[in-house]
Design brief:
The protein is built from 9 helices and no strands. It is an all-alpha fold. α1 packs antiparallel against α5 and α5 runs antiparallel to α8. It starts with a helix and ends in a 21-residue tail after the last helix.
Length: 274
């Protein structure tokens, strides 16, 4: 029953994408994660430990900030709306059945991403109900994962703030300052750190092959989405700044997403079309 409730919350909040197609992957994503965090707090308030309580708060803060930030950016930034216009125009030709499939797929992915904590809380509740165990302790892996989650969110926030500041100074130039000197997509890096932390924090509490498969699918799924996003961004920036020799030097010397790993381009990775 718990899993049905969590999935229903994800479906409900992700449905904002029917208003504007890209919201399935952006605003709906943030709001779905926040909604799942709130739902977990409500359903399992009696068995929360410090790690699970803080993790749910991280989900809420992350989701509300991301969804709100993206909506405000679209409302205030004419330049960003111009960038999104081709995607919004294309979405009008997408068949209703395809949109429904995308909606359901996105909602399932957001459920999978948060599943390590859902499984931990559900497993603990079942054991307590059977009288077989007390509340599961917060082991080292759980704390390490939680710290990674917080660092991932902070990294995303810092990257967005630095990009906004740079664009205010020079809207027509690419951003290569601050965190963007280390990797070209620091906000996507923050996403990977966040969800890797979620997975690591849940490892000690997963039970059975199915729970492991679901948790791994969540991490693999969001990794695929982030590299797909990096590919689209790279191709868009190539169109906008490809003739700039400073940009050409930048993309050849700064990794696209993972620090210290010399991966500079993913635009030819056809498997990451999304």
């Amino acid at each position: 029953m718990t899993y049905i409730v969590i999935l229903a919350v994800s479906l409900l909040l992700c449905a904002v994408g029917f208003w504007r197609y890209v919201y399935f992957f952006s605003v709906g994503y943030g709001f779905a994660v926040a909604g799942i965090g709130i739902t977990l707090l409500i359903l399992f308030h009696g068995i929360m430990t410090p790690v699970t309580w803080i993790a749910c708060i991280v989900f809420i803060v992350y989701g509300v900030r991301l969804g709100g930030y993206l909506m405000i950016r679209e409302m205030k930034s004419a330049a960003y709306n111009k960038i999104l216009k081709p995607e919004n125009d294309r979405s009008k030709s997408i068949a209703p059945g395809v949109k429904i499939a995308i909606w359901v797929s996105c909602a399932i992915l957001y459920f999978l991403q948060t599943s390590p904590f859902t499984f931990r809380l559900e497993n603990t509740a079942n054991l307590i109900e059977e009288g077989a165990a007390m509340i599961a302790p917060d082991v080292a892996a759980a704390w390490i994962g939680l710290i990674m989650m917080i660092l991932g969110v902070l990294l995303e926030i810092a990257a967005d703030m630095q990009k906004n500041a740079a664009k205010k100074k020079n809207p027509s130039r690419f951003v290569d300052t601050g965190l963007y000197r280390i990797v070209r997509c620091p906000n996507y890096l923050g996403e990977l750190v966040l969800w890797a932390g979620v997975f690591i924090a849940g490892i000690p509490y997963l039970q059975g092959a199915l729970q492991w498969i679901i948790a791994i699918l969540g991490l693999v799924g969001i990794t695929y989405v982030m590299f797909s996003g990096a590919r689209r961004l790279e191709m868009r920036q190539d169109r906008n700044y490809g003739d700039d020799p400073v940009y050409q030097k930048y993309v050849k010397t700064v990794p696209i997403m993972i620090p210290l790993i010399p991966l500079y381009s993913v635009k030819n990775w056809k498997a990451f079309v999304a």
